[in-house]
């Protein structure tokens, strides 16, 4: 059951002191109060996909680059727990798959930190939002062997993910 639909928000990728997490902003916000004109604030920007032909994971639709990221908050009726499992596309026994996707995060050389997000393979974008604003950015995650053991992982592959409920 969908509780809200909206767009992804977060800090700009060059702001090292801003928040690190992605948030799902509703399409029907309630207006806040105007703020005084100075720069002593944290900032909230929209998110956009940084997926181009050279880094496009298999299964993610083409032409999503620079489009603004849509999101939804959902409730699984009768379920009490949910978990995002990176590196898998199926849930463990006793769990129900909500969706499968590709693990994404910010770019390693950008100043602002990010967090991993499991982005549904059926990516959605905000209508009319395909301008390159360079705000909160989503890049596919790729594996690097070394301290990450290969096997069982493989070098330079995208990372699958699944969201499961119970």
| Overall strand count | 9
Tally of helical segments: 0
User: Which of globular, elongated, flat, extended, rod-shaped describes the shape?
Assistant: globular
Instruction: Bin the helical content.
Output: under 10%
Number of domains: 1
Mean pLDDT: 83
Major sheet = 9 strands, mixed
Rg result: 17 Å
Q: What is the helix/strand order?
A: EEEEEEEEE
Structural class: mainly beta
User: Span from first to last CA?
Assistant: 15 Å
* Share in β-strands: 25-35%
The unreliable regions are none
Q: What do these coordinates show?
A:
The chain has one domain. Strands 1, 2, 3, 4, 5, 6, 7, 8 and 9 form a 9-stranded mixed beta sheet that branches. Helix content is 0%, strand content 32%. The chain is globular. The protein has 166 residues and is mostly beta strands. The chain contains no helices and 9 strands.
Key traits:
32% strand
Structure, briefly:
With 166 residues, the chain is an all-beta fold. The protein has no helices and nine strands. The chain starts with a strand and ends with a strand.
Task: Give the SSE map.
Elements: E1 2-10, E2 23-26, E3 45-49, E4 70-74, E5 82-86, E6 96-105, E7 117-120, E8 136-140, E9 160-165
Parallel strand pairs: 3-8
Antiparallel strand pairs: 1-2, 1-3, 1-4, 5-9, 6-7, 6-8, 6-9
């Amino acid at each position: 059951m969908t509780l809200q639909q909206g767009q992804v928000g977060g800090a700009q990728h060059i702001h090292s002191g801003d928040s690190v997490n992605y948030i799902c902003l509703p399409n029907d916000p309630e207006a806040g109060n105007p703020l005084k004109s100075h720069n002593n604030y944290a900032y909230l920007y929209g998110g956009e996909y940084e997926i181009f032909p050279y880094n496009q994971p298999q299964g993610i639709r083409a032409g999503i680059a620079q489009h603004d990221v849509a999101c939804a908050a959902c409730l699984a009726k009768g379920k009490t727990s949910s978990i995002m499992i990176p590196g898998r596309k199926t849930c463990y026994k006793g769990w129900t798959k909500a969706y499968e996707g590709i693990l994404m995060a910010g770019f390693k050389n950008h100043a602002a930190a990010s967090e991993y997000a499991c982005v549904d393979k059926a990516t959605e974008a905000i209508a009319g939002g395909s301008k390159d604003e360079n705000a909160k950015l989503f890049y596919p995650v790729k594996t690097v062997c070394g301290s990450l053991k290969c096997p069982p992982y493989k070098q330079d592959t995208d990372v699958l993910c699944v969201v499961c409920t119970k």
